[in-house]
Every structure is written in structure tokens, then in C-alpha cells.
Amino acid sequence: MKQLEELVRPNIWGLAPYSSARNEYSGQAAHVFLDANENPYNSPFNRYPDPLQLELKAQVSKVKGVPAENIFLGNGSDEAIDLAYRIFCNPSQDNVVAIEPTYGMYKVCADINNVEYRPVLLDADYQISAGKLLSACDEKTKLIWICSPNNPTANNICREEIVGVLQDFQGIVVVDEAYSDFSKQQTFRSELGKYINLIVLNTMSKAWGSAAIRLGMAFASRDIIYLFNKVKYPYNVNLLTQNQAIEALRDPYQVQDWVKTILNERTRLVCAFRDLACVVKVYPTDANFFLAKMTDAQGIYNYLVEKGIVVRNRNKITLCGNCLRITVGTKSENSELLAALRTF
Ligand SMILES: *Cc1c(COP(=O)(O)O)cnc(C)c1O
Fold first, then answer.
1. C-alpha of 136 from chain center
2. How far is the centre of ligand 1, averaged over its atoms, from the C-alpha of 92 (Å)?
3. Residue 146: CA count within 13 A, CB half-sphere
4. What is the pLDDT of residues 106-115, one digit of tens each?
5. Which residue numbers in the chain have pLDDT < 70?
6. Which residue of 78, 203, 208, 289 sits with most ligand 1 atoms within 8 Å of its CB, as the best mutation to test the pocket?
7. In this structure, which residue's CA is closest to atom 11 in ligand 1?
8. Is ligand 1 within 6 A of the CB of residue 103?
9. Which of 12, 75, 123, 322 is least surrounded by CB atoms within 10 angstroms?
């Protein structure tokens, strides 16, 4: 990798971050807090939350096997995605490379930040070679986005190819593992010591059943985490979210249980789909959803909506013509979907 300073926007490298009252006071235990213009009443909501979420990070560290100093927590992974652009990409100068199709937020955040977005098509089985991604890069490429398991295709991207990109790319590689709890592929969180240009994203929104609280995670080198902390809003994760996440993380066995149930239901759904007259093909999946090529995606989508069942229509997405993306639900929800499709 290039020197980190060469990859970071000069204004961010030189930025003096906002220093909050809670940042500046970190001495011994105090009991009178007259430093932050808070209302002394309405405890505990009157106090600003911990800007660095240390108690929550200790918990995340235990569950994810990553030291707290290598963790950034944000308002969903979407915050980490946006921050990556704001830290590394000079607007109207730099570019990023991403697999295509993939999660839509990488492109939206590129557009918001006025950064050129270079999509590189997956092949027919939704895989890609390191060489193909790298040949889309030039001197101005700061980030490569790889989502694995990928959304909306649901498959893991081949691990050796991701490693190839990590080894040969001079900039930052973001591996979005939002769905890794559903996959047997080894997580890249364990490779942080080996690749200083790696950022791994995780979220509480999928397997952890906590999309409503908005908590996303980025795992990276200390130097990259320092930059994320410098640029984020001072109190980006609110107290309710911090407390609820600590609760949820205390029970990883619950999540394992949910994952097992969801994977069993996925097998049942995929098998049933293969026998439906309106299904052309079901693509391989390593996530809690799958992509299915239909005889008439738009017509089937409309038909399901009329019955009160909403799936994701990916018909207009590159390489996903006539495809619906189906999230695995509860047993009864899945059965309702199958019953509806049998009478299409
Ligand atoms: C759902 C999803 C996320 C989660 O985003 P949050 O902001 O954490 O809810 C991130 N990446 C991908 C690829 C996703 O599909």
C-alpha cells in the first residue's frame, strides 16, 4: 500500500477534530458535571453519550475477536461507507472501483461526494478476478468496494481473488461482510494484522436482528480508525443504541439460533422455488436471501404486492434481468409466499 498520508485527503490529514466536553475530561471519576451545558434533570437522557462508545466496543471486541482500538462504530454501516469517501476521496479528482452489481449505497455515497464511481461487471456466475478489478484502477483510485456475500447476488466472492486485490492494490480495500454471519466463508476480520489497507464492515442490521437501532461497524488498522473518529460527528451513536447493542451482544447464542433457523428455511424455500413453474433459475446463496430468475419478474412482483407480500424487484439491475430478491422470513411467511407463487 502507499503511505497512508498519500491516500488521505490533505484537509482531513491536517484536520484538528472537534473536541467535546466529554472528550476533554477523561480524568479520575467525577460526580459534578458542569462542563457540557446539559440540563441537570431527566437522567440518564440529559447527558451526552460516550463519544467513543468504550463499553460497547469492549463487548463488540469480545464477540468479533478484534481489539477495541481497531473498531469504529457508526449510525449503521452506511455511516462508515460515507466516511470512507469523505476521508480518502478528493471530490471531482479521485475515483473508486466496485464490483457490479452490488449494494447501492457505494454508488449513492460516491455521487453525494462527487467522486467518480467505476463499476466492474461480475461474470455470469457472479464472480470476479483480482486482475479485472485492478485493471480498472489508476493513480487516482483510492478505494475498492467488495461485498461478500454480495447483495443482491447472495454469493460469496471468491476469497483468493479478494486476497489478490488486498495484496496488489496500492489503496484501501473495503470488504463489506454485512451477511457473513450466514456464510461458512472465513471472515476477513482475522486478516487485519496482515493487510494494513483492509477495512471490514459488519452491521447489527441483519443476523443480529437490530436494524432499527442503527449500528454498523468498521474494523481496520489503528491509523485508519483514528481518521474515522476524527471525521465522524462527535456523538454519532446515541445512548439508547449503545445500551440496546450491549444487551444484544450479550446473547450471541440467540443469533446462532436465528441463523440456523433461517438457513433451514432458506433450504426449504430454494428447493420449493426450483419446482415452481414461474421460476427459471435460483442462484447459489451464502446469505439470508437469494436471487431467483423468474418467467416474468415484474408481473410476479405486482401479483405478490396485491396479495400483501413484498419482495425486492431487481429486474432493472445489471445482470439481474427478470430477477427477484427474496429475503428468508419465518416459516409461515415463507409458506405464504410459496402458496401465492403456486397459484400465479
Ligand atoms: C443491509 C446492508 C448493510 C447494512 O447497512 P446498515 O446501515 O448497517 O443497516 C450494509 N451493507 C450491505 C451490503 C447490506 O446489504
1. 23
2. 26
3. 32
4. 999 999 999 9
5. none
6. 203
7. 178
8. yes
9. 123
